[in-house]
Amino acid sequence: MSHDKSFQHDLWELIKDIKFAMLTHRHADGSLHAHPLTTQNRSLDPGEPLYFFVSKKSEVGQRLRADGNVCLSYADLKEDRWISVSGEAAISEDLDTKKKLFNALAKAWFPGGAEDPDLELVEVRIVNAEYWDIKESKVTQLLKMATAAVTGNKPEMGEHRELHTNG
Questions:
Q1: What are the C-alpha distances in Å from 33 to residues 64, 68, 154?
Q2: Is 128 in a helix, a strand, or coil?
């Protein structure tokens, strides 16, 4: 994967304050299913995966072991930010990483701490990511859309970037 430091930094700046991601995975029958999960990272260095805690009692770990292709969706409605991350998820039992990421909020779900036997660590390696960061006010957005409707030109609003792997 190409590790674009600037993009990874920008991506982290966009998602770090969003409490939940929707992790979408595929069921055995091919249907898609999404779960709200809390991103556990404290930073996102180039090449670093996104981390999530899940319960072994849930279906998430089982499904990800069968098919690790996932999509993470983040949304910040107040700031008009929309982020989509495609990746390859894996289940990890790395106790050092669990300990590093474990926090007081995770303790509500996993009272046994990082060593809780019900705790699974999901690592999502970023394959592709895309974001839209609309910086214009709502009024400006509406004016640009109205102008576009009249002129037939697409409105240009905010920043849109993509990151793709090199294969």
A1: 11, 13, 33
A2: strand
**Residue 86: beta bridge partners?**
71, 128
22 touches 34 (CB < 8 A): yes
- Considering 23-27, 44-48, 127-131, the range whose residues carry the highest mean pLDDT is 23-27
Tokens found for residue 136: 């214009």
Number of helices (H), then strands (E), in the chain: 5, 7
Q: In order of start, what are the domains of the chain with their CATH numbers?
A: 5-164 (2.30.110.10)
Q: Are 37 and 83 in contact (CB under 8 A)?
A: no
9, 92, 105, 119, 149 from 125: Cα distances, Å: 15, 12, 24, 19, 40
- Count the neighbouring beta carbons within 10 Å of the beta carbon of residue 40: 19
Regarding pTM above 0.85, the answer is: no
User: Which two three-digit tokens encode residue 97?
Assistant: 């990483």
Any idea how long the chain is? Answer: 167
Tokens representing residue 70 in the block: 């996932």
